[in-house]
Amino acid sequence: NLGQKERAYVEGQMRTLDEGLRLKQQMIEEGVLLWREKQAHLRELQQAAEDLQIKLEEHRWRKHETDQLQEQTSKALEAGDNGFRHQNASLAGLFQLLDSNKDGRISVDEVKAKVVLVHEAKRVLSEDEALVLMGGGREMDLTKFQHTLWDTLTRADNVKIKDGASGGPMSEDPHLKAADRAEWEATNLRKVEEAYETVNMEIRDLQKNLSIDYGADWEFLFLSGQCYKLQMYEYAYSLCPFNLITQKSTTGTEVLLGRWGMWAGPPKNHYSQMVYENGEPCWQGGSRTTTVTLTCGTETALRSVKEPSKCQYIMDFQTPVACQPVLKQRGVHSEL
């Protein structure tokens, strides 16, 4: 009879609600973990950006230094300054010879590998001896090299380049050497700049993503990055929560029905409706907008789409996170 059917319907609704609430609790727990993971990832990206900022400044300084060297070399060669040509070829070439890994700096290990004492050429320098030759630092750039080890090597009374070291300082044209070095530094600078911009772009995107209201317990966070589709007649609808909604016809034409705007549910159930606005322009004027109503269910799926008025769409989106304990209380009371 009618009473039994109504009771069976209500009991079915209560079972759905119980299962929905159970799934919602799981999603809340997953949301909390996902939120923490995103926060940790943001901190990692911010640290990477700080490290790249330091690296960027170092590479800018190196490029500036090599640009100056290239400019000085070019001016001297144009003026026919053979003395400068000889000195610069030796300075730049010797620096390049010792800079084995081509990072623009000479390290203690690089000095030990290619510099020896004049009277003990077969003995490897100790670390203390190398540090003394380098002016006390563990690495040196071209400027520091010119005022420390370069002076010592050119006197040739105490240390020298190890026999058999390839790429002697006088073997290359100084103009080409300076130009190659400048291009090499410019390439490295571009790589660091690109990496820095990429990391900052990721930071901005993640911060924007984390600024969205995903519910009091981040229960809606799992929806971010997902898309739910529904085929209705000649149209395929796609709802991507917190992003956008599209409509695609069988001819392949895709129309934007709105971008994420805000939560628009009533005060007692704020998270029951979403508004997507600023879609593609409507021929009658204005832009397309979509209101998404969230309903309780054991699955997350787009259930229906309607267009009650031109370019104004409404959707029914079912998900466990829309289930509310108060619904169960009302259902029980209605039976009593």
From TrEMBL:
GO BP term, pick one: liver development
GO CC, alphabetical: glucosidase II complex
UniProt entry tagged with the keyword Metal-binding: yes
MF terms (GO), sorted A to Z: calcium ion binding; kinase activity
Keyword Metal-binding among record annotations: yes
Matching InterPro entries: EF-hand-dom_pair, EF_Hand_1_Ca_BS, EF_hand_dom, Gtb1-like, Man6P_isomerase_rcpt-bd_dom_sf, MRH_dom, PRKCSH
Pfam families named in the record: PRKCSH_1
Residue ranges constituting the EF-hand domain according to the UniProt record: 86-121
Family annotation (PANTHER family): GLUCOSIDASE 2 SUBUNIT BETA, N-LINKED OLIGOSACCHARIDE PROCESSING
Protein name: Protein kinase C substrate 80K-H
Species the sequence originates in: Nothobranchius pienaari
Source organism phylogeny: Eukaryota, Metazoa, Chordata, Craniata, Vertebrata
